[in-house]
Amino acid sequence: MNWQAICDNPLFRDMPFKFETNRWGRIEMSPASNRHGLFQILVAEWLLKLMPGGRPIAECSIQTANGVKVADIAWASHDFLRQYGVANPYPAAPEIVIEILSPSNPLAEMEEKKELYFARGAREFWICQEDGGIRFYNNHAQLEASKLAPGFPERVELSFS
Fold first, then answer.
1. Suppose 77 and one of 34, 54, 142, 144 were both cysteines; which one would form an S-S bond, judging by CB atoms 3.0 to 4.6 Å apart?
2. CB-based contact 74:94 (threshold 8 Å)
3. Does residue 138 contact residue 85 with C-beta atoms inside 8 Å?
């Protein structure tokens, strides 16, 4: 089953899982949580504030050498969006790809995804840890801060006030 067929299949609509495929096209699922969703929105809000030259994308599907991976958040420049529009999945990775760590996707899985996204052209990869701490990477090393989104905080805080 190809990615668009999965997206169009009514059996998969409204399920509380995030779908990806592995290198053989088999569906893999991981459960979503409200904490995860709140961190997605917080990161996207910061990107909107700091990065007017593009758009954040939630649940961004990217074709990789190991199947279609769905980044929790990505930031794509206007140039990227003009080139690829709403392709599903994107054949290349947007400039910034962000994954939110959770018990269902451990750090080892994030390390593998990081390499897959860099191989598809991502310029930075971020991991939002369960406490809101952000780890920034380029394709060579971990960074102290994002080079593409100067001013992005080292930690995003869940606040309910």
1. 54
2. yes
3. no
